[in-house]
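User: Can you recover a sequence for this backbone? Please restate the input before giving your answer.

Assistant: Of course. Working from this structure:
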């Protein structure tokens, strides 16, 4: 298995690519905030459930592995995690037909930037952990 095939790295790369594409869409929304009849757009977030769908266990049944007697055993589950799903409301449309709200777009840009930075930090840490595991630190 190549190091690029590690699932966590693949998921983080997907998240970073999504954040980059979303930044382009949000910038386009801001640039067209005064264009008549322009409709604001956004990208649907990649779902973690889709990435692990090929695994043998569902996400809500993940358990910890106790490899030595000192480890805390499994039994932890993620039941009810889907209750935090959010729904998206409709856009307001101005008389000119434009649906872009600059305040909303700026909040989305800031949120997107934080998600990208978190994904890059996790990616860097994951690579560092792999290097330590291989004894290359």
């Amino acid at each position: 298995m190549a190091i690029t095939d590690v699932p966590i790295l693949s998921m983080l790369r997907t998240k970073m690519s999504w954040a980059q594409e979303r930044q382009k869409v949000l910038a386009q929304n801001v640039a067209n905030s005064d264009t008549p009849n322009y409709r604001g757009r956004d990208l649907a977030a990649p779902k973690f459930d889709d990435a692990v769908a090929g695994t043998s266990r569902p996400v809500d049944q993940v358990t910890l592995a106790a490899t030595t007697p000192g480890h805390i055993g499994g039994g932890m589950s993620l039941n009810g995690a889907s209750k935090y799903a959010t729904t998206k409301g409709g856009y307001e449309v101005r008389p000119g037909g434009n649906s872009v709200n600059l305040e909303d777009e700026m909040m989305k840009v800031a949120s997107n930037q934080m998600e990208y930075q978190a994904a890059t930090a996790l990616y860097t840490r994951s690579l560092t952990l792999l290097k330590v595991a291989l004894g290359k630190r």
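That completes the design. Residues 80-88 have pLDDT under 50 and may be disordered.
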